[in-house]
Structures are given as structure tokens and as C-alpha cells.
Design brief:
Layout: E1 3-4, H1 7-20, E2 29-36, E3 39-45, E4 54-63, E5 69-70, E6 74-80, E7 92-93, E8 96-97, E9 100-102, E10 112-117, E11 128-134, E12 138-148, E13 151-161, H2 165-209
Parallel strand pairs: 9-11
Antiparallel strand pairs: 1-5, 2-3, 3-4, 4-11, 6-10, 6-12, 7-8, 12-13
Length: 210
């Protein structure tokens, strides 16, 4: 049985390692932590997952009775897309082997995509990880299925994916249009009032001259 003893010490070391940061960004934000069956499962993601950016989804699997980290489990991640989306795993994306691309198909309803999380894809070997690219924003449901021998557990959480930064930048002209229109309207009204005041002053001056 491949376990690491002194589970609480392992957790402390893991948190210390995550606080230092690493290139693959394993760990990060805790999306879920809970006990199911014989395991305690913690789900991490890259902070603030964004559409079209690679998001590292990683899990820490521990024995519920001892909190020892279990290193020989099988971990499958089942993603359920928001409505009108579909998911498809991609063997290689932009030179990044193993990245799973979850894309869009406007003609379909929500569907399911299964991705294997492995220790080989995690920079911290206490974790199981899979790099994911969400093709659309929204609330993606994640079901993590952990199995080891006859033991198994299934936990669920929701991963909120924000829109791509480029999409937000593209919306800026439309978001800025109402304030610009209001400013132009106010300036027009001020100019018209100024014209009326000058006109009245001119009429008054001519009346006084007469």
C-alpha cells in the first residue's frame, strides 16, 4: 500500500509548497473538500479559471481514517458543460501534450467529457492533475471519481469559468457608449442654454440702446 504517513505533516508541507507557487500552478483555489467513502478528496483549480486559458485541475486524495495521502489511486474527472456546450478531449493543443479542450457546439445541450487526472501531470507528486481548457464561460460541473482496489468515491463541485479577457475588451466600446452619449447630451444642452443666454443678452442690449 503506497501511502505517506503523518498525514497532517504532509498537508502542511503541501500548503507550504503551494504557497511558493510553481510553473504549472497545481493547487491554488480550493473548490471542494469533503469525505466520501474511505477517502477525503480536495479539489484545487488555478485561481479564477478563464475561457481559453489552461486551467490546472488537481486533487489531493487522502485516507479518511488516517489522512495519509494515497498515491496509487485512479482519478477520472467528468465535466458536464453548461447548456448548449459540448466537451471533447484533445491529445495535444498548441504544443501542450495532454491538455483537454472543452469546446462549444451551439446546437447541442449539456454533455459529458471524461479526463484522466494523473500524478505525472502534476508538479507536486502528492496530487493528481489534468490541464483543462474551457472553450466557453459558465458553471461547469465536475464529478471526480476516485478508485483504488475495491474502494471508490465520487465527489462533485461547480467550477465557475469567466469569459476570455479579449471578449471583455471587445465589449468595452459597447459598455462605454451609454456614458459617452450621456456626456454628449449634457454638453449639447449646456451649449444650447449658453446660446439662449447670449441671445437674450443681445436682445436686452439692443432694447436698452433704443
Amino acid at each position: 500500500m503506497k501511502t505517506i504517513h503523518c498525514g497532517f505533516i504532509i498537508q502542511a508541507l503541501l500548503l507550504f509548497e503551494l504557497s511558493l507557487g510553481n510553473a504549472r500552478a497545481d493547487g491554488g483555489v480550493v473548490q471542494f473538500r469533503g469525505a466520501q467513502g474511505p477517502f477525503v478528496v480536495t479539489v484545487f483549480t488555478t485561481p479564477a479559471p478563464i475561457q481559453d486559458n489552461t486551467t490546472d485541475v488537481s486533487l489531493l486524495v487522502q485516507r479518511k481514517d488516517s489522512h495519509d495521502a494515497t498515491l496509487d489511486a485512479t482519478v477520472d474527472l467528468l465535466f458536464t458543460s453548461p447548456p448548449l456546450l459540448f466537451g471533447r478531449p484533445v491529445g495535444q493543443l498548441c504544443g501542450l501534450p495532454g491538455v483537454a479542450l472543452l469546446g462549444q457546439n451551439p446546437g447541442q445541450g449539456a454533455s459529458h467529457t471524461s479526463v484522466r487526472a494523473t500524478r505525472a501531470q502534476a508538479s507536486s507528486k502528492l496530487l493528481y492533475a489534468a490541464p483543462i481548457r474551457f472553450g466557453m464561460p459558465g458553471n461547469w460541473k465536475l464529478d471526480a471519481i476516485v478508485s483504488r482496489g475495491t474502494d471508490s468515491a465520487r465527489v462533485s463541485c461547480v467550477i465557475a469559468v469567466g469569459p476570455a479577457n479579449g471578449r471583455l475588451i471587445g465589449l468595452l466600446p459597447y459598455l462605454a457608449l451609454p456614458p459617452v452619449v450621456a456626456i454628449l447630451f449634457a454638453m449639447n444642452q449646456a451649449l444650447r442654454r449658453g446660446s439662449r443666454v447670449r441671445c437674450m443678452d443681445t436682445i436686452g442690449t439692443k432694447g436698452n440702446e433704443q
